Amino acid sequence: MNAEFAFVDELVPGIRWDAKYATWDNFTGKPVDGYLANRIVGTRALCAGLHHAQEEAASRGFGLLVWDGYRPQRAVDRFLRWSHEPEDGRTKQRHYPRIDRAAMFRQGYVATRSGHSRGSTVDLTLYDLATGELVRMGGHHDLMDPVSHHGARRVAPTEAENRAHLRAVMETAGFVPYASEWWHYTLQDEPFPDTYFDFPVTTGATPG
């Protein structure tokens, strides 16, 4: 494994995480290929950026909860195969209520070559430091719908304000937002802009 990768929680103490694709709580309805442990991995540059973001979030009364970081290419390949499987309805209402599976790729919610596989893209949200509760964002992770877009009109004012807080936090730390997903940010100066990795996320020693 490349020495430039690490477990995010080891380099950003106190960060919270829930690696959705290592669980049954994701749009495929089961753990995804390549996610063998509920840990978040990313480049060391990503971790440094998240450390900065965590400090900025704390100054606003928030903490960070990370849902995904580095994503093995084999997981992306699994998403593509899943999109061609018959619809069973198990996750449709929660994750893609108004489109079919194949439209996830056509509309840019899922990519055949994901920035996550380069190791410096992250999916995350905010929680309230005082209560520990996730803040309201007007939609959950991987809700593939226009309501998830930055500037979506069907979002309540408080939810829009929370999205703006997250965006300000991440942009201050050197991240760039993705227009269609309020939770998705990529490090502007990512170290591997043209490399897509495929090592699995496992337990054990720190990557590298």
Write the layout of secondary structure elements.
Layout: E1 5-7, H1 8-11, E2 16-17, E3 41-43, H2 44-59, E4 62-68, H3 73-83, H4 92-95, H5 103-106, E5 121-128, H6 157-172, E6 175-178, E7 181-187
Parallel strand pairs: 2-4
Antiparallel strand pairs: 1-3, 4-5, 5-7, 6-7
Helix pairs in contact: 2-6
Would you mind describing this structure in some detail?
The chain has 208 residues and is of the alpha+beta class. The chain contains 6 helices and 7 strands; from the N terminus they run βαββαβαααβαββ. It has a 5-stranded mixed β-sheet with strand order 2-4-5-7-6, covered by helices on one side. A two-stranded antiparallel ribbon has the order 1-3. β6 and β7 form a beta hairpin. α2 crosses α6 (157-172). The longest helix is centred in the N-terminal third of the chain and has 16 residues, at 44-59. The mean pLDDT is 96.
Any key phrases for this structure?
6 helices; five-stranded mixed sheet; Muramoyl-pentapeptide Carboxypeptidase, domain 2; 208 residues
Please mark out the parts with pLDDT under 50 across 5 or more consecutive residues, or reply none. Answer: none
CATH-derived topology: Muramoyl-pentapeptide Carboxypeptidase, domain 2
C-alpha Rg (nearest Å): 16 Å
Please give the share of residues in helix. Answer: 25-40%
Brief synopsis:
The longest helix has 16 residues, at 44-59.
